[in-house]
Amino acid sequence: MSKQSTPKPRVPRANSKQAIETARLARLESYAQTLFDELNRSVFSDGLKGAQLLWSKTLQVTAGRASFRRHQDGRTETKIELAIKVLDCEERVRHTLAHEMCHLASWVISGRPTENHGSIFKGWGQRVEARRKDIKISTTHNYEITYKFNWKCDRCEMHYGRHSKSIKPEDRCGRCKEGRLMPQWEQRTRKPRLASTETTGEYLPSRYSRPGAYTFQIHLCVRLLEPRKCPGLQAAHSTMARGGKGRMTLTAYLPATTRTI
Description:
four-stranded antiparallel beta sheet, Zincin-like, 3 domains, SprT-like domain-containing protein, SprT-like_domain, alpha+beta
């Protein structure tokens, strides 16, 4: 019995967009983890050692989010989520991660789970800024988010950005209520289909194996959708059958004037 070989995972090319994006994300993840360990040791005295550091694809506008949960048995669960689509450089990761760590310190170390951006939070922020001169703790961010898809209103020129093609062609501008939203990326035009295929099959007696054996015969029918664009090409019918011993037969009915499209 032959062993089935497991398919190897596809590895993107080194210069492809997927490979570049994967390498960028891996670099930011490593930087964030190193910074977290450093601040936790030098500023928070390892008080946030059990916190999880996660990267989220669902955060669209918020740069980061910290959460704290206390279970009935006394266990605590803490985690920090960083937005992949917002934090695209080390500077943004540095400021956002330090901000969220100050939230966790207020809840876990200071024991104030209802603290938001009050005096306790600002006190932890001052400790971080004193330790790292390249970090500034603020209560909000004004990061300009880079969107993959952008639209512009053809009347008031209002811009809209999305990470997917969620805006439909029939949608109207939310500001002027009248303008159409025009895509700002290059759109590919698909070639029109010239023919459609229809496949049917049936079991027929096989002449390649023992008496009483059957083979499955496939019938392929090609219909032209726009005959004017295909001069000399007519509808085609082909039959393909696999015999009992692995033989393959192909019968095609094409006119002599057939041209390749």
